[in-house]
Design a protein that fits this description.
This protein is α+β, with helices and mostly antiparallel strands and 145 residues long. It is built from 2 helices and 7 strands. GO terms for molecular function: fatty acyl-CoA hydrolase activity.
Length: 145
């Protein structure tokens, strides 16, 4: 996974509460960092999330997460959370995540979300408007990829 594989990143600083007594980030916080990165990705794409209406009337649920830890982050370091959609299926999408300190890859992984009807929470097709927004934002995914 290379930095130039990503069009989008969000910078955050490691807070005191996220580190252990040695100043090293506890593993569970990297999933929160990835979630913040995805939220900011949606925002940058113009698809902001609301608890009441989801993403422009659509709701997505995480169904798979995988993180690989390579090197620890420490208290007060700046981290760049890189995010991109690698696959956009009928009702699901796969995000690739890279968490870097400068150019050093600390954590990489993937998160799969399923689009669901808000009332039944059953999988449903990803709306064309969302697909178009992703295609325009990433400029690499063909429509319906």
């Amino acid at each position: 996974m290379q930095l130039d594989d990503f069009r989008f990143h969000h910078t955050l600083r490691v807070r005191w509460a996220e580190a252990d007594m040695q100043g090293i980030v506890f593993n569970g916080h990297y999933l929160t960092y990835a979630d913040v990165g995805i939220t900011e990705y949606f925002r940058a794409m113009g698809q902001t999330y609301s608890g009441e209406t989801g993403v422009n009337g659509s709701d997505f649920f995480a169904v798979r997460t995988l993180l690989e830890y390579r090197s620890p982050a420490r208290f007060d370091e700046l981290l760049d959370v890189h995010v991109r959609i690698a696959r956009l299926g009928n009702s699901s999408m796969q995000f690739l995540i890279g968490i870097y300190r400068a150019e050093e890859l600390l954590v990489n992984g993937e998160i799969v979300y399923v689009h669901a009807d808000q009332s039944s929470r059953r999988p449903s097709p990803i709306p064309a408007s969302f697909r178009s927004a992703v295609s325009e934002f990433e400029k690499v995914l063909p429509e319906g990829a």
